[in-house]
Amino acid sequence: MNNQAYELAKAKYAALGVDVESAFKKLSEVPVALHCWQGDDVCGFDHDGPLSGGIQTTGNYPGKATTVDQLMADMEKTISLCPGKKKLNVHACYAIFEDGEYVDRDKIAPKHFAKWVELAKKYNIGLDFNPTFFSHPKVKNGLTLTSPDEETRKFWVEHGKACIRISQYFAEETGIPCVMNIWTGDGFKDIPADRMGPRLRYKKSIEEIMSQPFDPDKVKICVESKVFGIGVESYTAGSAEFALTFAATHEGCLPLMDNGHYHPTEVVSDKIPALLCFYPEIALHITRGVRWDSDHVVLLDDETKEMAKEIVRCDALGRVHMALDYFDASINRISAWVVGFRSWQKALLMALCTPHEKLKKLQDENKFTELMVLQEEYKLLPFGEIWEKYCELCGVKGDASWFDEIVKYEEEVLSKR
Ligand SMILES: [Mn+2]
What we know:
Elements: H1 3-15, H2 20-28, E1 32-35, H3 68-81, E2 86-91, H4 114-123, E3 126-130, H5 150-174, E4 178-182, E5 187-188, H6 196-209, E6 219-224, E7 235-236, H7 240-249, E8 253-258, H8 268-276, E9 282-286, H9 302-313, E10 320-324, H10 333-352, H11 356-364, H12 368-378, H13 383-394, H14 402-412
Parallel strand pairs: 1-2, 1-10, 2-3, 4-6, 6-8, 8-9, 9-10
Antiparallel strand pairs: 5-7
């Protein structure tokens, strides 16, 4: 890159009191989890049935990964094109069975995820984990942990416990804490006759899952809320109030906010500082909902920037577990991963290069006219040069020429699948 352009940009930031090099250092130490499910449209390896549970992938772009080796190769290609520290985020349905072996989800064990540990170790990064409470024949009438059928509920509790054992194994193998996120799509299409019953069963089920011994410094159990899903429009057991209160009242449990899981005019950027007033740690799923929880690729849009700003200005980079969560099957899936990961890195770097103290002072002095003027002015700072330098330091392309690699990979690998 043009070093002179970078030096000029750096000086502009320095004049505002922003040290871009310390921003590079801070950002390069913060892990962001890359979700394995973008690569194969949330199919996984443990079943053949369709995706269910109120979520849906749309699109039929060629080259989807259909084997473990393909999915991992695609993730490695993604990693090679993204700056910054990563974690791998794996769903339980990505268990790897060797030689025709198969066990149901209540019996999965660390050995079924040994290959994921191998991949994480190759890059010296951590692993996050998610029980898969969907796309499975034992989801009875759309319910798992909230099921009134005790056998069904117990099966899914056992699945949750198995996932804690696997999360503990991930943390011990990598030496990095594992975030284990509980999300179920349990709910009803139409007006229920009992809203509290399923929630009481959900509460009891998560408590039973958490009775599985684990080290809270190694396994961070989260509960993710959701407002509604396809087919469960009227009622979701794991609502925002349920998840927040559960986490607040249970030692070793964190709230997880997915920014696609709220009413479209609610913003997670405003919820982050509210939760940070009370919780030592929180978790985030970063996505982009278009009109609903559509899981579009994360872009550098206003709300993405605002969420990153809140994490940075609350000085909470060490308190917020960040993970991407989206899936677009209508475009090249590796490109979808790369654009999303790079967008969140851009948002964080931009936030780290903003003179927050100066802006906070204007707010406290009630100088809202000047605050507006400066906030608008900062939008035009020469961020492109700063971003390119950061990418160069991370050993990846700073401009869109990373896409040449995607085109080549599509020709040489994806088109032959
Ligand atoms: Mn999510």
